Amino acid sequence: MATFGNGRRVAIVAGVRTPFAKAGTAFKSISAIDLGKLCVAELLQRTNLDGKEVQALVFGTVVPSVLAPNIAREVSLLPLLPKGVSRACASANQAITDAADQIALGQLDVAIAGGSESLSNIPILHAQGFADALVLASKAKSLPARLRALSRIRPKDLVPVTPAIAEPSTGETMGESAEKMAKLNGIAREEQDHFALRSHRLAAAGTADGRLTAEIMPVYVPPKFESVLTSDNGIREDTSYEQLAALRPVFDRKYGSVTAGNSSPLTDGGACVLLMNEEKAKSLGYTPLGIIKSYAYAALDPGEQLLQAPVLAAPVALKRAGLTLKDIDLVEMHEAFAAQVLSNLKGFESKRWAERAGFSQPVGEVDRAKLNVMGGSIAIGHPFGATGARITTTLLNELGRRNGQFGLMTVCTAGGMGFAMVVERTR
Ligand SMILES: CC(C)(COP(=O)(O)OP(=O)(O)OC[C@H]1O[C@@H](n2cnc3c(N)ncnc32)[C@H](O)[C@@H]1OP(=O)(O)O)[C@@H](O)C(=O)NCCC(=O)NCCS
What we know:
- The chain is an alpha+beta fold.
- The protein contains 14 helices and 12 strands.
- It starts with 9 loop residues before the first strand and ends with a strand.
- The structure holds coenzyme A.
- Coenzyme A (COA) binds next to helix 6, helix 7 and helix 8.
């Protein structure tokens, strides 16, 4: 990244998102494309920005619709935006850093970046036997030949194939990886449940006092549009440690500790941020929330500790920003699973992990009073493609409220990858 040092600072002007809704609930009939369009249109309206100013839209989704694989292109077809400025991306963080790099390099001045996900609408595939029979039938030249082809279908071929949240390289699901990390890092079930409880309590408080809802647009629920969702519907303000402790492990039923309560739920939602060259933002009359100081990606072997790579990315991002953990006022860490967050936090304190990242000293102990102060993905939800933009907005908004200066965010991802970014408040 030869950027952010050439004088062109990248400002984050504003961010907004839809409420996050548990998959199969309020947003089950809204596509990821429409979730993306909703939040991008809202962002333009809230910032009163003329869509013609937007030179690029970089947008991510993780489980794309097979019918419309380029989500950025579809979202950019909003009448408010100039056509043909989009580019598909893997995730909201990748979208944000791609757009930021282009701004820092002087290729662009204004961009919107984010992502959306509908886990209510994941593609369901036919089994190979069924697909083969259909292809054969479609090629048949006579009715008897077509019937012969279709008669090859066996009952087992009718069982649909749903994509698992599993690693193509190892076959291990995210939940199994979290389970493995809990065991390797000695994270007890009690700690995981306490962390999940904390996530719900803080998210409920952030919703009640309006800090979380400030970043959320209301969304009317199709098909009747009679009810409206104004906040995240997975937050359980009434959950208790006892209720969490009573849940059965999901991914290792006999010896496991990862439950539905201490995992992030499958979620629908969209989120995006408005990025500008800082000078351009000033010339348009905006006071940005903050600037991107640095970022870093890292990866490890997916067969090892799948969700531990933030531990490798964070020290690099801090070093690139010329800061240490002591300088950081708030930390936003994506909560895929409580076991993963607690493993990442342990990794930050470990000399062994520091050395793996190429440093002699660990990042250090994250002050819990600065960590995910309005809860995280366990309570708020985790629409895969959107979470990175949600965290970016949450972090900058809260830095502003607390008069903090620097914020660190981390995200773990499939494929054993990790992301970290340092932002600085300027508002
Ligand atoms: C863990 C997972 C399988 C659970 O799915 P689920 O069984 O549909 O989850 P539910 O929300 O129905 O919860 C199951 C039960 O736990 C209960 N529960 C969940 N969270 C709770 C909480 N905080 N307090 C009390 N009860 C809770 C629910 O009420 C439900 O109870 P019921 O069966 O009596 O209705 C699913 O959320 C998952 O796959 N998550 C991980 C996603 C992932 O891999 N993400 C990638 C990370 S990068």
